[in-house]
Amino acid sequence: MDFQKVGRARMMMRLPRHRKQIADANFVAITDLLEAYGKAAMTHDELREQAGPAPALLKEYEDLCQKLEDDILRMLSAVSPRMIR
User: Fold this and answer.
1) Which has the closest alpha carbon to 12: 2, 1, 24, 3?
2) Pairwise CA distance, residues 73 & 69, whole Å
């Protein structure tokens, strides 16, 4: 599974104001973050679907997804437009 593609698509849905910038960003640091976000978001979804998921583990993945979203936003705001495709 292409977790970077999953992460990019989910971030574009979560942050519609940054959709074009997320779609066009194609440098190693951002693709690594998008891949990590894709993995974390999918794991979070899988945990939520389980009958009686461990609340602490679910919270950990919610926090991780939020941290990655914040990191991606911070990176996008700091990057030069020339680095975006």
Assistant:
1) 24
2) 6
Q: How far apart (Å, rounded) are the C-alpha atoms in residues 18 and 21?
A: 5
Cβ contact 69:33 at 8 Å: no
Query: Residue 67 has which token pair?
Result: 């941290």
Distances (CA, A) of 70 to 52, 53, 77, 80: 28, 25, 11, 18
pTM: 0.88
Distance between alpha carbon 85 and the CA centroid of its chain, in Å?
A: 19
CA distance between the termini of the chain: 24
Q: Centre a 10 Å sphere on the Cβ of residue 11 and count the other Cβ atoms it contains.
A: 25
In one letter, which amino acid is 30?
I
Cα separation, 8 vs 85, whole angstroms? 15
Q: Indicate the DSSP class of residue 79.
A: S
Model pLDDT for residues 20-36, shown as the tens digit of each residue? 999 998 889 999 999 99
